[in-house]
């Protein structure tokens, strides 16, 4: 697949070689242009180019992180053009990617490498200047308490359980402090990681920020459980605040996004059920279902 001519010219000029093949990766949901580019000498680079104002901002964030840190779990930068934003980085098409458009396949030991990699990532101080995670100013669970239909129509929990549990869910949500000085990827999921030479590499740092060290693990665990990983409570038994906040956020998005496709609605419903169960276990509430 040929790229826009401007992008072909930028990449060939910066790398100093003629390209022979441009391939769109078989995973990822980014709105940016993305290509694995092969050159005449069979070397490769990965190219990402902005397509609108949002992807411009995200790409600048990603370049800032990749160019500021030298960690084994981060792809290295080969080139950068600021206007229009184009990021050229290490090509990882030869790595093992658990996710593709055909589904997600975890090999034996992959999840353990992922969880170990997150421990390392969360121990790295964020580079100065990275945007800080902000605590939630208002409680979404309080809004749900006032109008619980968005949750109740999912048939995940009865109204009586919600009435008994709502105060604990609100308290857990508003008590969670997400601020901090640690590096936060912000979008860890199976299509944003790969494995190369026995090590994990995290890609797509568009939503990176500075915050508390457990953020990436907490947001990953429900999705990982959907893909065959451990129940979140087994990994983070003190994650009541994270579970309550994540669950409320998914309920709100599910009710607010009228354009959400049915397949994603089903994913959100399953995530809400996992997070509600996790919150109940951590907060010592009755099981919701």
Description:
- The protein has 289 residues and is α+β, with helices and mostly antiparallel strands.
- The chain has ten helices and eleven strands.
- The strands form four sheets. A five-stranded antiparallel β-sheet has the order 1-2-3-5-4. A two-stranded antiparallel ribbon has the order 6-7. The chain has a two-stranded antiparallel sheet with strand order 8-11.
- α4 packs antiparallel against α6 (159-175).
- It is elongated and about 65 Å long.
- The termini are far apart.
- Residues 111-234 form the Aminoglycoside phosphotransferase domain.
- Keywords: Transferase.
- This is Phosphotransferase family enzyme.
- Pfam families: APH.
Topology of helices and strands:
Layout: H1 5-15, E1 19-23, E2 33-39, E3 44-49, H2 53-68, E4 77-81, E5 86-89, E6 99-100, E7 103-104, H3 110-122, H4 140-146, H5 149-152, H6 159-175, E8 182-184, E9 193-196, E10 199-202, E11 209-211, H7 215-226, H8 232-235, H9 240-256, H10 262-282
Antiparallel strand pairs: 1-2, 2-3, 3-5, 4-5, 6-7, 8-11, 9-10
Helix pairs in contact: 4-6, 6-9, 7-10, 9-10
Proportion of helical residues: 40-55%
Specify the CATH architecture of the largest domain. Answer: Alpha-Beta Complex
The neighbouring-strand order within the major sheet is 1-2-3-5-4
Question: What is the CATH topology descriptor of the largest domain?
Answer: Aminoglycoside 3'-phosphotransferase, Chain: A, domain 2
Write down the CATH class of the largest domain: Alpha Beta
Structural class: alpha+beta
Runs in which pLDDT lies below 50 for 5 or more consecutive residues are: none
Average pLDDT figure: 96
Instruction: Provide a count of the helices.
Output: 10
Protein name: Phosphotransferase family enzyme
InterPro entries: Aminoglycoside_PTrfase, Kinase-like_dom_sf
Organism: Dinghuibacter silviterrae
GO molecular function: transferase activity
């Amino acid at each position: 697949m040929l790229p826009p001519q401007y992008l072909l010219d930028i990449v060939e000029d910066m790398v100093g070689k003629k390209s022979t093949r441009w391939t769109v990766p078989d995973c990822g949901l980014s709105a940016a242009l993305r290509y694995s580019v092969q050159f005449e000498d069979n070397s490769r680079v990965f190219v990402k180019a902005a397509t609108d104002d949002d992807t411009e901002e995200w790409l600048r964030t990603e370049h800032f992180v990749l160019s500021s840190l030298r960690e084994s779990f981060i792809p290295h930068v080969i080139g950068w053009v600021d206007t229009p934003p184009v990021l050229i980085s290490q090509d990882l098409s030869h790595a093992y990617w658990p996710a593709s458009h055909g589904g997600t396949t975890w090999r034996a030991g992959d999840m353990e490498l992922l969880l170990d990699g997150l421990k390392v990532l969360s121990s790295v101080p964020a580079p100065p200047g990275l945007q800080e995670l902000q605590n939630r100013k208002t409680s979404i669970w309080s809004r749900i308490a006032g109008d619980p239909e968005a949750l109740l129509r999912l048939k995940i929990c009865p109204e009586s359980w919600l009435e008994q549990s709502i105060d604990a869910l609100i308290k857990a949500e508003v008590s969670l402090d997400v601020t901090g000085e640690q590096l936060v990827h912000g979008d860890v999921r199976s299509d944003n990681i790969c494995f190369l030479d026995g090590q994990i590499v995290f890609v797509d740092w568009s939503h990176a920020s500075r915050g508390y060290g457990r953020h990436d693990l907490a947001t990953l665990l429900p999705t990982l459980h959907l893909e065959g990983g451990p129940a979140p409570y087994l990994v983070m038994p003190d994650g009541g605040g994270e579970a309550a906040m994540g669950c409320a956020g998914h309920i709100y998005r599910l009710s607010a996004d009228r354009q959400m496709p049915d397949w994603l609605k089903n994913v959100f419903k399953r995530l809400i059920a996992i997070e509600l169960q996790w919150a109940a276990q951590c907060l010592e509430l009755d099981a919701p279902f």
